[in-house]
Amino acid sequence: MMAHAQGQQHPISLYLKIWGLLFVLSTLSYLVDYFHFQGYLRWSLIVTLMLLKAGLIVSIFMHMAWERLAMVYAILVPPLCLLVLVGLMATEADYVFLSRVVSFGR
Amino acid sequence: MASLPPDPGESSSSNPPVLPPAPGWQGIASDWASDKDAFKQVPWGKAMMWIFLLSDTFIFSCFLTGYMSVRMATTSAWPNPSEVFALTIGGKEIPLILIAIMTFVLISSSGTMAMAVNFAYRRDRAKTTALMLATAALGLTFVGMQAFEWSKLIAEGVRPWGNPMGAAQFGASFFMITGFHGLHVSIGVIYLSIVALKVLRGDYERSGNYQIVEIAGLYWHFVDLVWVFIFAFFYLW
Question: What ipTM was reported for this prediction?
Fold first, then answer.
């Protein structure tokens, strides 16, 4: 690990490689829409490409890969609570949808 | 708390050197249990920026979760983003092309920002300023294209309470999510321009501490990160 007194020092070529990789991944996710993939294939491709891009940005561009674990976990673990929120809201939205179908017949 | 006598072998005026952490969970536990600062060797400015970004993550996630709920609960068809955001170029309709260009512009701005941080730590002020201003210019381009996209949709009759293409909730989700993200980009452009000019003026030369460029960079990369999620969930889903 680098001493923080001098800050993070990595070769410029690393950033250029990640930049290129992000371009490729973005192109791929655009092509998912361009070629009209549908259903589970579409959704799994979108989520996979999204997570790959997010991982590259956070770990390399934001230097998370070189931070102390005590800070990495303090930042990356709390957002997992959001999965609970998403789960609750998905159940709720499903119920609202069913109620609307039953009550309004559409 | 203050009753502990100082260690005999240690002068009271200087802090003890911070040891490298033990690997894995042991290191985390000893850092957090040390009854002092938990984020060792992390400058406070950087730790605070990370904590701010964590809170911002929750805000954007609430918007995206709200959007998920209304989209799942609506009984009318959701407008197809692929068609709504298509542009006619040279007589041919290309789906989602404007959003794709915006994505590439924002990723490029992240690339220039990452390099600006690198040159800042090498104390190359001219290159740092140039790269940061390039980042800000790309950010402005992004906001400009977003303004174009907004006016196009408003002209087509999209409103927060309804639109001619389908489910009424589309407009509210669109304006709220992209508007809040656009606000972040605009603030980032101002923030980066200020720091860039201060670097050029040599404000950080006396201390020799260019951490502030990395901290500003963290904010900018976060704006790009949020766009990755908006692009996936709002535009591609």
Answer: 0.91
